Fold D-2-hydroxyglutarate dehydrogenase, mitochondrial.
Amino acid sequence: MAGAALWRRGAAWLRGCRGKEGKAPGVSRGCAGCREVVRTCERYAVRRLPFARPAERDVAFFERLMPGRVLAGQPEVEPFNVDWLKSVRGCSQLVLKPQTTAEVSQVLRYCYERNLAVNPQGGNTGLVGGSVPVFDEIILSTALMNQIISFDKVSGILVCQAGCVLERLSEYVEEQGFIMPLDLGAKGSCHIGGNVATNAGGLRLLRYGSLRGTVLGLEVVLADGSALDCLTSLRKDNTGYDLKQLFIGSEGTLGVITAVSILCPQKPKAVNVAFLGCQSFAKVLETFTTCRAMLGEILSAYEFMDEKCMELVERHLKLSSPVADSPFYVLIETSGSNTTHDEEKLNNFLERAMTSGLVTDGTVATDDKKIKVLWSLRERITEALTHEGYVYKYDISLPVEKLYDLVTDMRARLGQSAKNVVGYGHLGDGNLHLNITAESYSHSLLDAIEPFVYEWTARCSGSISAEHGLGFKKRQFIQYSKPRKAVLLMQQFKAMLDPKGILNPYKTLPSAPERSTG
Amino acid sequence: MAGAALWRRGAAWLRGCRGKEGKAPGVSRGCAGCREVVRTCERYAVRRLPFARPAERDVAFFERLMPGRVLAGQPEVEPFNVDWLKSVRGCSQLVLKPQTTAEVSQVLRYCYERNLAVNPQGGNTGLVGGSVPVFDEIILSTALMNQIISFDKVSGILVCQAGCVLERLSEYVEEQGFIMPLDLGAKGSCHIGGNVATNAGGLRLLRYGSLRGTVLGLEVVLADGSALDCLTSLRKDNTGYDLKQLFIGSEGTLGVITAVSILCPQKPKAVNVAFLGCQSFAKVLETFTTCRAMLGEILSAYEFMDEKCMELVERHLKLSSPVADSPFYVLIETSGSNTTHDEEKLNNFLERAMTSGLVTDGTVATDDKKIKVLWSLRERITEALTHEGYVYKYDISLPVEKLYDLVTDMRARLGQSAKNVVGYGHLGDGNLHLNITAESYSHSLLDAIEPFVYEWTARCSGSISAEHGLGFKKRQFIQYSKPRKAVLLMQQFKAMLDPKGILNPYKTLPSAPERSTG
């Protein structure tokens, strides 16, 4: 059997990754670039929980269940073990690629019985280490669950499998006169199931709201393999508790999302983007309140970035700024149903903003191509940052007035020990992306950043994760944004829905304090 | 002690309401009009669950806790026992009016220990019997929890206690240039806490989305008296599971909402309302798709009513139709930031609708007063219906194409046995209000309607409660809209959060099947 054969090849490697329990392996044979990533279990000294270890008979079972869709052993499995940022790395030996909900059900029923841990994985674009294993969790990939189930052209309701890539869905619904209610930089890779599992925010939230409003239904397979069919296509349904909400944003720890029903807004007839330079963050804020009042219902995005971000996209990606050098840049998007009206609103606003000195330079795009160019300046900051070395990423919700103070304070605090401290994000939603770069990871720099960044955020009643989730990297800091009682309740929900804890272990919820002897 | 004295006066009455356990009382001394309402426990033959019965020492405890804010015994308590529709009636002897979360906590801690059942009550405007007791549950009224805690003029985020009346909140935020994200006919009485507890939909959902998106935070007291503080004021927060969602729409069965944080949209600078006559339901639908495309982002409501509804508001409320008699009427509201643009969009649409024969008559209002008059035709249908006798109310989500077929089918089915069968509702959200009137309640008419109406809805994959909730009246029918697995999970959540089941018993979730002997 192919899977079993592969398994045997990988078996030597399998014994390596044991965290504190065993000796870490020497050099592993991974994908290019992956092998340099330090294993999560080593860098963070995590203790493996007492799950069963996948064995040959398990591979054989899965291979019978989905022949040819089981990857076992190196090197095929390696890319699934490492996150997009190359910041965390698991040592799973087994990737399963189900095509149907029934297969997911059978996989989980089996794993539940055997006490095998499972790491659900979508497009693996997460930024907090939630999408890759920490140890040898079996990776359950939604890559082959990519079918559109239905689309209603009257209501704009799309029903599809969890593994559909966001950009493909966007293209599909745009052909029918609609758009997806969310858009994000990772759209070319991320899966809609992963978007929902992490409650992704992104670039359109200001206008179309969060997935908690636009996701109408979900199909989920629970830890024991039972399927929960709440895949309705209704705008309103008040029959009992809204169970699907619990799975939105639970990062695969409560169930595996297998299908999604989502409300798509109509495609706007006119889209305009303005890219502006501001001389201070105070002007960025004043520009926001002014444009919100003057653009009203057509405002669909208000993004900002500082000059450091612009420097990085220019240097690493060879993009060029369309406006004169400024301490801050703002990207404003309008989406509406009437080109003339929208342009008039935008022009009125721009005139006001220029004459009152809110902005000092600016450019406007109305055609698709130029709009994409302007958006890429903002969307590709994340990518530009990865060229800098190791990136410490923070995704913070704050009252807008205080949004940039955190960047300034952090810059002063770290001084020369950081290469760069940059701030950008979804200002309209009060969401700052604070990023700190250094040549490589160091415990000491991390200690200078954390818990300072979380304490600072908590003092302003902010959230330590606005949209990225907690995943592996932030889970121990949940108490900075949630009271003890809330965390206890979350743990009760987890225990109720996944009593053996096999679903995405080591993620989202804090681990129990380690006992001194082990 | 005043409370205890009142209690003694009411004590004889107390012994009456025992459902199957004891003899029903003769004539009760209630508020005017209330005494005619048949007790829920009699009409529906409900069995009282084995909660403790409130006794004098309990009243004394509560009176010490909140002196002067305890109502015990008749006749003060009677209005709290009967719903707005005068269709269900409990026999509680005790109303508590806490002012603070700490008081709610103390009340619930006490009730939990004593095994006393509690019925949380807001403005008592619910339509499914969820807001009044069935037996002698202690009524926990939010009437005195009516303080605004904070309002941020930059973000539009309002934080307030649960007992604030929606209309007062609307007035308050409008003075600051914002509006509440929800609006409904009952706004003059309903409490925001009740709105959230029932996930109220209403007239603005089409534009501003559901409370699941606009409610940013909640403070909730759980059954055992512990408080859960998730009262954040952040647009985005992905730190762990979104616990507040479980309480939104749980109808007071999982916890008592004590405070709400909610995102208010900016007040539109221009509002227009068009009231139109259509010759068929097919034209109503075509008018919808046309106006959605032409009005785009400024469309804020699309409501419809049939000619029977118009007849009833004319007859009972002396309102007059502003347009020529038509089989169907449509109310379209636009809300935008630019008067000239909005009027141009609306006029273009109306011209298209008239010339293409979609609508045969219409009127437009741009000033507040006339707008209110037009809205009252739609908003006051519920009130007009109560003048007809007994009203069987159904609140159904359906694919819009099939929305009115249910009314036609029901009308044909019931023939002369019903006085009226009318249909109206939030067409833009796929939400039909089907109402059937008769001189008085009868089991046989109910049997002709149910389960037919639920089976019809289930065949179309609709929801048997779009926005009203399940409350007391619909809870046994949940399986028409939710699979068995979902109901089981809901019951597990209930058991986890309220192990003794003291919070709003007999509501939302179906009762366990009765044993044949008892």
